[in-house]
């Protein structure tokens, strides 16, 4: 193999190898254990298997057909893994997302096709129809993911982005680039997808480093300083009043990606102290505290803005999805937004 081909193989294979390691890390070792990590792990493993197939086939066109089938079949899992990873991240893993309804039929389809129409016996259907179906399915999930990311993109463009927004958007755009690379091979090169993936993997690693670093800065030593100190009632009363004013005047709860450290910064206290204040003195979690303001605003809009759809009201009040809004509204008020609006009718 010539030196140029050796380098090409090295750089393209490096991304696939690291992708597999990252996928295993997020599925097995990543902490805390949350469903988003599993989706990200499956996404990376699926992409890596697909990329690995491309690399070996490019350098060895006589590669056994079973490997081609495995590589193409892995593509079926890329789209849904991306969609549910983004959805679970936006919902902070709190909502029920019926991923089983998507993954189960896809896995059954992969198994059935492998048994009934193996690539080795039926190469033509795979090269003509199945190949197109795979990439169409992937594209549809990309479009669906873009739809649930629309508010995140809006925040990004309005310069109110958070580090988590950049993280999610980067993964989404990287997925688009790989899809485009594979669907333009007639104009570029078959190995372009693998090289694109290697580039994106290292960009992903860089983002991971900065994201983790930022998270550690937020959660480190100040909490230890106040671990044994309880906020006295007088100070707690003043802080709670300031917090209520902040929520009412600046309407921070309307930010769907609002985080406790951001509120603490506005109150000029450390995150741990704000967490302690809400938990000990308000006797609720941060998310419950914020959601109460969101639902209060929602009831006001439901009453005074009859032309607004329920979904629009949910987004206006700071919820990332219709399902989260419905679940939270019912938990706090005991009824659905639709029932609440219906009861308002004269």
Automatic annotation (TrEMBL):
Q: Report if keyword Membrane is assigned.
A: yes
Listed A to Z, the keywords are: DNA-binding, Membrane, Transcription, Transcription regulation, Transmembrane, Transmembrane helix
- For this protein, the parts annotated as crossing the membrane are 6-28, 66-86, 98-117, 129-149, 164-182, 188-211
InterPro entries named among the record's database cross-references: Homeodomain-like_sf (IPR009057), HTH_AraC (IPR018060), HTH_AraC-typ_CS (IPR018062), Tscrpt_reg_AraC-type_HTH (IPR020449)
Q: What is this protein called?
A: Helix-turn-helix domain-containing protein
Q: Which residues form the signal peptide?
A: none
Annotated HTH araC/xylS-type domain ranges read 242-343
Task: Please indicate which superkingdom the organism of origin belongs to.
Answer: Bacteria
PANTHER family, from UniProt? Answer: ARAC-FAMILY TRANSCRIPTIONAL REGULATOR
Keyword Membrane recorded: yes
């Amino acid at each position: 193999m010539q030196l140029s081909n050796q380098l090409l193989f090295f750089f393209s294979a490096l991304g696939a190898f690291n992708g597999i390691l990252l996928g295993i890390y997020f599925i097995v070792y990543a902490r805390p254990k949350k469903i988003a990590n599993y989706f990200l792990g499956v996404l990376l493993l699926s992409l890596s298997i697909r990329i690995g197939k491309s690399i070996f086939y490019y350098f060895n066109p006589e590669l056994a057909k079973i490997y081609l089938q495995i590589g193409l079949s892995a593509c079926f899992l890329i789209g849904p893994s991306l969609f549910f990873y983004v959805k679970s991240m936006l919902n902070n893993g709190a909502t029920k997302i019926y991923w089983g309804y998507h993954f189960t039929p896809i896995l059954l389809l992969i198994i059935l096709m492998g048994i009934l129409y193996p690539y080795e016996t039926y190469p033509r259907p795979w090269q003509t129809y199945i190949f197109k179906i795979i990439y169409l399915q992937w594209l549809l999930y990309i479009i669906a993911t873009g739809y649930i990311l629309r508010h995140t993109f809006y925040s990004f463009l309005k310069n109110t982005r958070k580090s988590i927004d950049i993280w999610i958007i980067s993964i989404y755009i990287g997925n688009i680039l790989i899809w485009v690379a594979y669907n333009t091979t007639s104009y570029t090169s078959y190995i372009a997808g693998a090289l694109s993936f290697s580039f994106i993997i290292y960009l992903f690693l860089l983002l991971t480093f900065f994201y983790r670093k930022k998270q550690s800065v937020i959660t480190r030593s100040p909490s230890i300083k106040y671990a044994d100190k309880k906020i006295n009632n007088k100070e707690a009363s003043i802080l709670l009043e300031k917090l209520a004013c902040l929520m009412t005047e600046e309407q921070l709860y309307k930010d769907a990606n609002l985080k406790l450290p951001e509120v603490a910064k506005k109150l000029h206290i450390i995150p741990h102290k704000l967490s302690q204040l809400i938990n000990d003195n308000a006797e609720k979690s941060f998310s419950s505290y914020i959601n109460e303001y969101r639902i209060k605003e929602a009831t006001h809009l439901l009453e005074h803005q009859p032309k607004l759809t329920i979904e629009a009201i949910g987004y206006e009040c700071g919820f990332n999805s219709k399902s989260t809004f419905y679940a939270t509204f019912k938990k706090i008020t005991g009824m659905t937004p639709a029932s609440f609006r219906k009861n308002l009718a004269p």
